[in-house]
Amino acid sequence: MGYRKNSFLDCTGEFTLMTPSEVAGFSGLRGVLNSVRIIECDPMRTVVEALVKYHHLQMVMRYYIPVKGNGFSITLKVYWDEQDRMLKMQVTTPFRMAIAWVK
Predict the structure, then answer these.
(1) Are residues 55 and 44 in contact, defined by beta-carbon separation less than 8 angstroms?
(2) Which ranges constitute the DSSP H helices of 1-103?
(3) Residues 33 and 24 sit within 8 Å (Cβ to Cβ)
(4) Residues whose CB is less than 8 angstroms from the CB of residue 53 and which lie 6 or more positions away in sequence, other chains included
(5) pTM score, two decimals?
(6) Fewer beta carbons within 10 Å, N or C terminal of the chain?
(7) Is the pLDDT of residue 102 over 70?
(8) Which DSSP state fits 6?
(9) Which range (3-7, 56-60, 61-65, 71-75) has the least confidence?
(10) In this model, does residue 1 exceed pLDDT 60?
(11) 90 HSE (CA, 13 A, CB side)
(12) What are phi and psi of 27, to 5 degrees?
């Protein structure tokens, strides 16, 4: 039960990419849509959007990648339809000395 705990270590599952039909239903658009797509690409940055799911959770992840620089940002919009669950996000990178800032 999520509301009775103040920490959790065990992983109960992972998000997976939505299928094209799930993306269309989630976004309310007709047609086939990819779950990962570039939504902005200009001389300053590239924005990549990924739509993922886990049971009754849907999440929109946006990666903001600058053209110059050595960092990137991620924003998450979580559409929560789970009961008695907590969410713990882990982003694995290949970098040895990675530093994260959370707002």
Answers:
(1) no
(2) 20-27
(3) yes
(4) 15, 16, 17, 18, 22, 59
(5) 0.79
(6) C
(7) no
(8) S
(9) 3-7
(10) no
(11) 8
(12) -85, -15
Q: What's the rounded Cα separation, in Å, for the pair 79 and 53?
A: 9
Amino acid at 95: F
- Tokens (6 digits) for 42: 């200009």
Rounded to 10 degrees, the C-alpha dihedral 45/75/49/83 comes to: 180
Give residue 64's pLDDT.
Answer: 95
pLDDT (tens digit, 9 = 90+) per residue, 2-55? Answer: 566 666 777 778 899 999 999 999 999 888 889 999 999 999 999 999 999 998
Rounded to whole angstroms, the Cα distance separating 71 from 97 reads 12
Residue pair 79/41 in contact by the 8 Å Cβ criterion:
no
* Cα gap 54→18, rounded to integer Å: 9
